[in-house]
Amino acid sequence: MSSAAPVSPRLLVADHVAGGLRVFDPSDGRETASLPGRHPAEHAGFLALPGGRTAFVDDRAGELVVLDPYGPDRDGPLVTATAPVAVPAEHLAADPAGLRIAVTTGLGRNEEPWSDLLTAVDLGADGGPRAVRVRTRTGEPGVVLVPPPDGAVPGDTWVVLRHREPGALAVFPWAALESAPPSCPPVAPRYGLPLPDDGHGDAYDPVSGLLFAATGEGVHRARRAGDALVPEAPLPWGGEGRGYYLRLDPVRRTLWSTVRGGPGDPGRWPEWTNCAWWYGPDSGRSGRTPLGPGLVFRFAVAARYLAFARIHPDGDELIVLRPDTGRITARVPLPPMSGAPRPGSAPWDGVQRRAVAASPGHDLIAVSRGGHGEVHLIDAAAGAVVRTLTVPGALDEGGLLALTAPGDGAEGDPVGR
Hints:
single chain; 32 strands; Quino_amine_DH_bsu; WD40/YVTN_repeat-like_dom_sf
């Protein structure tokens, strides 16, 4: 008796500027579903949930949207749930069960933080999703959800915000949020820890219970102990620079970041140095791998590889790294982008960018070509482009990508990416 053929991954391609989301079968390039008129919050990203679901925040509609990318293949809906949330969405994160989601607000297309709203969404509430909005403080807060430790009161989940200027970790019990009255009342944190003022990047490991926050001086760690948040010694970056992005690799349970060094002037971004930095919560070991100069920021986690998109005036590339050895196995050239960042100007204002996505259950990598409406599909093991998808519209600013496969365990990283 032959076994069933494996199910192909699904690729989500969102145009957060022009609006619209499309789902593709990357094995043949076929579009399987579409969702017009949606504007996913690019900074908050896509959030992997148990059961193969994916969530995002529509920044124009002010809604949390939960998708089943395989729903249309079974003659079911693509959208399985929605809930109203405050926007512009800065970050979103879920508890391990994928039923409680927190959404923070940040700058949006504004120069200064102006919103202090935090939304708590219970997807498992009686009668359907229930959302509550409260006020905390303005800023660019990161967020993780920390479940109760074994033996604690069931359901006593914490929402932990990472604030800047002044830097702090602020603890909000879920019960205090969901019981808040209407009209967006202010809610004070129950507990807090100081942080440096330059925090940027957050992660949570559901297995060890450690939460992480990236700062200039290193990665700060804390864990829940009873009714307190207890700090642990910060992890050093191990050399020049600092990481601005953290994410947990759920396959190997390894914390990763891209460490940026070099001149502080954003106009000199082609001179920036970049290293892949990692830390094993179980082994306690860490290391760095040089990636090359230019702009490297977000990256993607595949089954056996990590993928980093590097932008540079001398040519862009996708860097494929083998995490078990820390070695680079391929550098795949990418076609240039019209409107790409230029030396002498900041590389993130009014320029084209690249989004990158992968599934921890597959070795396929997707990387966009902002301004051209193209997504390149790369076989990480072969280090080669296998297909280029063309989507309607330009995918300005690189769009937003997610790659999902059945049972890939992506929800082991419970923070939007």
